[in-house]
Amino acid sequence: MEIRFERIEGSSPQYHLLLLVFAAMAAAGFIATWWVIEKGIWVTGMTSRVPWGLQIVMAVYYIGLSAGSLVISGLYGVFGKLEYKPFARIAVYIAMLFLIAGLLSILTDQGRMDRVFVEPFVYFNLQSMFSINPILYIGHILICVVYLWALFTERKKLTTVIATLAFGWAFCVHSGTGAIFGFGARVLYESPLLPASFVAAAMASGTALMILVIVGLFRITRRPVDDELIVWLGRFLAVCILVVVYFLIAENAYRVYVVELRQAALYYLFSGLHGVLFWFGLMIGGLGIPMLILFNRRTGKSINWIVTASVLVVLGVLCERYVIVLPGLTHPPELFPGMEITSSVIEEGVVSYSVSFAEILQALGVFGVIGFLFVLGLKTFKLLPTEARTLDNTASPD
Fold this sequence. Notes:
The chain contains 13 helices and 2 strands; from the N terminus they run E-H-H-H-H-H-H-H-H-H-H-H-H-H-E. By secondary structure, it is mainly α. It has one domain (15-332, 353-388): Up-down Bundle (Formate dehydrogenase/DMSO reductase fold), CATH 1.20.1630. Helix 2 runs antiparallel to helix 3 (88-109) and helix 2 packs across helix 7. The protein is globular, with a radius of gyration of 22 Å. The N and C termini lie close together (4 Å).
């Protein structure tokens, strides 16, 4: 199957306006980060009890999108499905950008940025997931660079090898991210299922994101794409959603079943903003409605409905990342199980946290950076094919 890739022209006023918008977002994020560093991280509302805020939520979310996006490229690179070759380059490029976004989110969350580039590599500790994960993240970016080079140069054997490595590495990356929480000491984090649950949510959100990118780019640039390719991705997304639902039910059934965790489970499921986000943002809006859409015979074959379901999944998994990171911090830690603490320097009970304006600007800044690089990349590199067809609609075999 002969596939020709092209750059976009990038000469329209709309293109330059989009670059300007992303540049402005990046500048706002830089200013906000500088202000936080100058004043101290306390201005974000974070405390010793809640040391992670919106930026860590976004970091986990971006890393998941990165890992999940590689699934689409793996359909061609690993499994040899030639009809999905047109999407391989853009999928790998997006995976690399979102991993960079995850690292930028972590960086802008740090009070001491100077230590980020030294501590994890000089003082390596195999017993610490915080020490292991930077190696996984940097390795993932390097693998994506080689993967893209193999795709651009049409080296089929190398593509298969690197694609398989990237596919497996992406699973390790997000399993490691999930292990930061699942292997922790907080009541609402402790779960051996979290690494696998993180991977499942990453595959769902990454697939949904790629559906939106593919449909959006091909419509904007007026390039033909066969509906069957998107419909199949919609079916794959539906299966991913089922897996996510299974893990969520298993995790929370365990919390409710174990007497020692029951009070924490009730707080997690039914208290505050995170309770609303869990039920309405994730379970109903992000998973339930998309399943109804994708498993329905009529709507499951409609591109517009598949796009709608994908938007809901992307937003729903963002809610899922929020309810994983923050409730586990605001809920009181159980420092000495079975014992009563009569005096402590740590604030007792449930504490509050709300997203600050500075954090919102930082998050917009990170998105502006990767948005700028994405739009610029479409003009610089041959990422988009002239068309995407099923094998039945191609004129000649590869």
